[in-house]
Amino acid sequence: xxxxxxxxxxxxxxxxVLNFDDNQLLGALFGQHDENxxxxxxxxxxNIASRGNxxxxxxxxxxxxxxxxxxxxxYQQLREGRAIETGDVDGAVRMADAADAIPxxxxxxxxxxxxxxAKKSTSGGAAHAVTQINTGxxxxxxxxxxxxxxxxxxxxxxxVFGVGPAGTGKTYLAVAMAVAxxxxxxxxxxxxxxxxxxxxENLGFLPGDMKEKVDPYLRPLYDALYDVLPAGQVEKRFxxxxxxxxxLAFMRGRTLSDAFVILDEAQNTTAMQMKMFLxxxxxxxxxxxxxxxxxxxxxxxxxxxLLHALDILRGVEGISVARFGDEDxxxxxxxGSIVRAYDREDNISAAVKPGRRKKG
Length: 360
What we know:
- By secondary structure, the protein is of the alpha/beta class.
- It is about 40% helix and about 20% strand.
- It has eleven helices and 14 strands.
């Protein structure tokens, strides 16, 4: 363990004492004005007192032990040279809450590491392995149980659907894994795509050349790339063709081999567009299809190609589906609250059938 701990029990309350051996890391561990400690107190309903390199945690026994595990995990992250970023504290609490124990040993692979399976999953699925993605610029760890399952699928499965609300990391984690596998030599190129102008892909009335027309709609993919790779490498790999970003319409007629292929905003494809995209699959290809069915922009009564594919491909060997919920939202906590509020409204609307007024 990265910190020494002692425990004193008293009926329903418990006191856990942590002593850290590197005082230089404590400022980053505690956060500016102790904001990280305050966030852990808020999330776990405990009290944390600090004095020098000593932390005393008091509260319900299970919450105290969880807080100790979270703080040790974050401290180890700092010892490895990785800064504690926005969302890491919440993520560490989610992961500690989802498993009885966080494994200490890891089996290192090409560009990513898979640890031993966690003991349990609160999402109702089977126990999963936790994956770290190393893109060279940063090491990315899961911030929710759903992300852990998804990252394990990205590391091991040929075709993965990532389905769920905004802010769950569906596209970002897929781009990070694509970069890790490109750097490891597992694939020769990365192909990133999404429907250009919502579902219609009608670019003709936009000003500029083709790149200028489509760039605004592909900006989230660029943002993810520049976050996980140095800017110079991104530009160099664009020029060499190792990384390609293109509207979905440009995929027709191609066969994608030795490639990591990502389709973003997949809920805005039609059934025919989705079939066209999926049948681009070639030798040594990996595909990730990411989308949020609740944010479909298709006109009229057109059915989303994402929902259609999930229905007809159910049970097909070689295809995995990671489903995220509002508990997996890793952006600002307010985003999770917004998602839950819209979900409640959707459920109420679905319960009130057309032509029937809601009572009360």
